[in-house]
Amino acid sequence: MSSILLLGGSKQQVVAIEAAKRLGYRTVLCDYLPDNPGQYFADVFYQQSTTDKQKMLEIAQLEGVSGVLAYSSDPAATTAAYVAERLGLPTNPLKSVEVLSEKHLFRKYLAGHGFPCPKSVPVAVGASADEVLGVLLGEEMSFPVVIKPTDSSGSKGVSIIDAPDIEKFARALKTAAGFSRNEVLILEEYIEYGFPRVIGGDVFVVDGEVRFWGLMSCLRDYRQGGLVPVGERSPSGLSDIQETRVREQVQALVTSLGIEFGELNVEIIVGKDDVPYFLELGARAGGNMIPIQLSDLSGIDLVEANVRYAMGDRSMPIDFCGNGLAFSTYVLHADRAGIYRELRVSPEIVGHVYRTVMYVEPGDAVEPFDGANKALGIVFLSFDDEAQLEDACETLGNQIAVEID
After folding, report:
1. Stretch 243-264: mean pLDDT, rounded?
2. How confident is residue 153, by pLDDT bands cut at 50, 70 and 90?
3. What is 193-253 written as a DSSP string?
4. Nearest 5 degrees, angle CA 248-CA 250-CA 252?
């Protein structure tokens, strides 16, 4: 029986372990958390950090694995590529995965290879607000600007600053540093939107070509700053011209980086004149159960596809260019710290809910939603058409709510 090394056993990653077992693979799981749920599904479990590349390599050699998968995990994506490259297993180039995994490297790559990108500069953790403001002025960057960690995902640690205010800069630097592992932050100009929502979702690459187009657009809760996505909707709402330009840029970047296979998470702002700007092209499946949402929409099991391709099995057809069906998700979240009591769904929207996944139970302590890791659960919805979807998305935050004491 062939074995697969799975890096991460969170609630969202259990589906990959289950898919691997369905396919008949022996599952070897690594996760540093002692209470991760994945350990109860895997055949073998090691309580080890998935960012420890050398340790993961040793485990992979010991277990004789035939593939490595960091499903829906940014921190472990480079580890998976490192281990697979060292062992001659299926992988994308480690150098390319490293570029996609750290924002300052990604911005440098985009600028150096002719892709549209905002003016940006890396900033070391520990730099003072005065120093950072001096950098901004020296680079002739205009406000608003964004400060964020370079190696985190899920919009964690991101701040937007609209004026040269020392106190705001100090708070933003502290927030970003709290989510930084590599101790490098990035300061970049804010991109003005030409299309009102960030384009998100996932694509899947086969033999260097994007064959699955799961482009959606992000829902935001502006009552909590609007930085963290609270769902994805499809169709995205892009015009034909905008969608074509986004697809052209995604394929061009995939080709430039030499990406051969696998699911990639996309975040793009369509700016003025319909120019697409990359926020992210993550070398892994998206969080917030995006692959499950896209599997529902397309009828193609993307979780299974991730496992198969990591094991070198490219027999599964992945072609999908959209079908016009109207779907969305809504990420359950708290606006303050407290105790979760219950989920409330209005009678007007309940008929559109076809799946609810909860990460918490009544009585659990919850925290304010400032990153995807603070999600309380996800509600999946379907609609008759795009017009009905548009109407519903305007009020989802009022129609679906969690009660917090």
Report:
1. 98
2. low
3. BSSSS-EEEEEEEETTEEEEEEEEEEEE-GGGTS-SEEEEEES----HHHHHHHHHHHHHH
4. 65
Q: Name 194's Cβ contacts closer than 8 Å, sequence gap at least 6.
A: 270, 271, 272, 273, 274, 275
Q: How far apart are CA 304 and CA 355, in angstroms?
A: 20
Can you spell out the DSSP letters for 80-117? HHHHHHHHT-S---HHHHHHHHSHHHHHHHHHHTT---
Least Cα distance to 330 among 230, 256, 195, 196 occurs for 230
Q: What is the residue type of 391?
A: D
- First-to-final CA distance of the chain: 50
- Give the Cα separation of 318 and 206 in Å (integer): 8
Distance CA 270, CA 253 (A): 16
Q: Give the global pTM.
A: 0.91
Distance CA 24, CA 311 (A): 12
In three-state secondary structure terms, 44 is: strand
Neighbour count for residue 260 (Cβ, 10 Å): 18
The pLDDT, as a whole number, for residue 164 is: 82
Residue-by-residue DSSP string for 293-323: HHHHHHS--HHHHHHHHHTT---S---B---
Q: For residue 358, how many other CB atoms are within 10 A of its CB? A: 16
Encoded amino acid at 7, one letter: L
Give the residue-averaged pLDDT of 103-115: 93
Buried b (16+ CB within 10 A) or exposed e, 203-232: bbbbeeebbbbbbbbbbbbeebeebbbbbb
Per-residue pLDDT, averaged over 271-276, amounts to 92
